[in-house]
Amino acid sequence: MAVVVMKFGGTSVANVERIRNVARHVKREVDAGNKVCVVVSAMSGVTNQLVAYVREASLLHDAREYDAVVATGEQVTAGLLAIVLQSMGLQARSWQGWQVPITASAAHGSARITGIDGSEILRRFESDEVAVVTGFQGIEPERQRVATLGRGGSDTSAVAMAVALKADVCDIYTDVDGVYTTDPRIVAKAKRLPKISYEEMLEMASLGSKVLQTRSVELAMNHRMRVRVLSSFVAPEAMAPVRLGQLEDIGTVVCDEDEIVESQVVSGIAYVKDEAKVTLIKVEDKPGIAARIFGPLADANINVDMIVQSVTPDGKHTDMTFTVQATELPRTLETLKAAKSEIGEFEIQSSADVAKISVIGIGMRSHAGVAALMFKALSDKGINILAITTSEIKISVLIDAAYAELAVRTLHSIYGLDAD
Amino acid sequence: MAVVVMKFGGTSVANVERIRNVARHVKREVDAGNKVCVVVSAMSGVTNQLVAYVREASLLHDAREYDAVVATGEQVTAGLLAIVLQSMGLQARSWQGWQVPITASAAHGSARITGIDGSEILRRFESDEVAVVTGFQGIEPERQRVATLGRGGSDTSAVAMAVALKADVCDIYTDVDGVYTTDPRIVAKAKRLPKISYEEMLEMASLGSKVLQTRSVELAMNHRMRVRVLSSFVAPEAMAPVRLGQLEDIGTVVCDEDEIVESQVVSGIAYVKDEAKVTLIKVEDKPGIAARIFGPLADANINVDMIVQSVTPDGKHTDMTFTVQATELPRTLETLKAAKSEIGEFEIQSSADVAKISVIGIGMRSHAGVAALMFKALSDKGINILAITTSEIKISVLIDAAYAELAVRTLHSIYGLDAD
């Protein structure tokens, strides 16, 4: 017997027929003797419709009212799934965030879960009742208002429920059957990773591999909750129910690195194409110049990612290159022009035709030469590196977007990730 | 200053543009210094969509889950209206049933309101905050589940809120501008009634004049809460705000008969065409025969309305005529056939081509001859009466449906209801 939290996103519950499919996944677990809490998102499209209503009502709107409206999407799914489960002969009931209760901070629209009382759900596990919980929402305890966690928050709801219920695993059902060494659409030889550490998954998630929401991985890491990525599109009866010790047979288990016996130096290659490069040319090289450039950008809430500073031959000027989200490029250029009096004279160049390629692996910590191998491989293919950033378990390079696929394939092969 | 509850139904909040129109009605009241609680229904069509989802999930469904799903419709409207009101510079917040709280019985899907704590809303009236409350729902206190009141329950929610807040009036906005002496589509000379008593309105409501839900009128009568029927389709700024003592200038005030100074003997003529007539011919006239006929119908939850029994010339048999809802006719015939062993031999005739015409007026209590005038007027037009029922303030006759309009026009004229 295992306690299992199962989370299903919007496309997995897009209509009643898909909800029936979800119910069969749940039934498989119950039939195997597992105790199940299901966390659901809104039917795909519903949240967008509700948000559109709110925007039509007023572009500037009270976040508490936005939450009251938008949170109804999950409430509909939860009730419908409970009904379908009952029609299959299972005991089930829906739980809205305030009913559990899941308490949340007052930051409406992007609230954080502050506590969960899972005692009543645990009590009902004893009589084999399935709990169907609305994702994405909680209740702000002081004013007793519904608070939503922000887009993608249902992953976080699921992990938080798993922690509260001391679950053995939190299974996140998606439209992919696991986490791969890289995007299979680019590299046919990409392999499913049976296990990946929280730290690696965090780098993957923040680097555009949109399988899991970053915050949910952080939460899982903090509480050492095993999270598994699975596909809801596999026939429910063709999938084995949760058995402890055999989790990695399907999907990808995100877990503590201690649980990964044979870890590879590099686990995966990630890439993003939605960054833009900005270069300020011939900025006067005076003390505090970086603050004068990046201060106004921070004030404008523009996230700067990679930064490279190079001094020009005259020694008095510097070129400053950095990247921002491509969608932020126009605002970035405006903000810099407005700050010209502080920064001084400069020329500006920008381009959205760049890609960031990242090599990720917890093994890097103990293995030297990973970066050198990367730089040489790219150089051998004639790919120019525009900027570099590194963390303990990741090396990212910025390159011309035209070479993105070539770079990913090259690195995937050179680090031994290609499937046989 | 008055405390006003304003209720808007589905067609009045059908989309964001219509919700904006509702907000202008509210603003008019706030600008006049009134304290306002608004009760809203789901946007028209939304409840039907949610019910369709539930039915698709399972035809036999847990009423508690049905309620969890269906109650979201009003929650969306309430949030949107609060946002629009705020955008007009008013203070407003939405209240879901469980937040007020409005407690309800555990009869999910057709729950009754058992209590309302309006103290927090009253406290916020002091700082001119508008309360936007979800109609149609409450919370069942023992299990803390959402419970809906059944279709049309938002009228009842509004009256219950008005009672809890000790409001001066409960204004129900509909798609008609008041209660008329009869259906203006049949009688062009029909007049708006400035006032009508609770008792008369109850007869009107239960007789097919679908302006107000019966239960809401009963509740208003029990608490002597003034209810006014108004049109939400009149331009909000063209309507006078609530002023006590001048309520009857627009719409129709449903109130205690003591408030109606010059009451007419007959206030209105109602008609329904959705009944069917059933006649059992030559039933053996033995003791308990009525129980043997109507017992099985009651067991099958079929409501019988009018009953006429006539003895045949031989003295040993009786003909039994009664009416049921036309939609129940097939089930009625089946049930009677199944009960043949108890009832004995009989022939059966049935027809849905009948109409029930009712003359309603609180003045009947003290005026004799109202019924005689009705029978004579119908007889003069050659209209045959198939059955008769009466109450203290109502006389109903069943006639051939072909004569329905003629009968209504004739009676409207003879009781002096025609407009000049």
TrEMBL record, chains A, B:
Q: Which keywords appear in this protein's UniProt record, sorted alphabetically?
A: Amino-acid biosynthesis, ATP-binding, Kinase, Lysine biosynthesis, Nucleotide-binding, Transferase
Q: Which GO terms describe its biological process?
A: homoserine biosynthetic process; lysine biosynthetic process via diaminopimelate; threonine biosynthetic process
Report the domain of life of the source organism: Bacteria
**KW DNA-binding (keyword) present:** no
Name the residues that bind ATP.
K7, F8, G9, G10, T174, D175, Y180, R185, K210, V211
List positions binding substrate. Answer: T47, E74
Gene3D superfamilies documented for this protein: Acetylglutamate kinase-like (3.40.1160.10), VC0802-like (3.30.2130.10)
Q: What is this protein called?
A: Aspartokinase
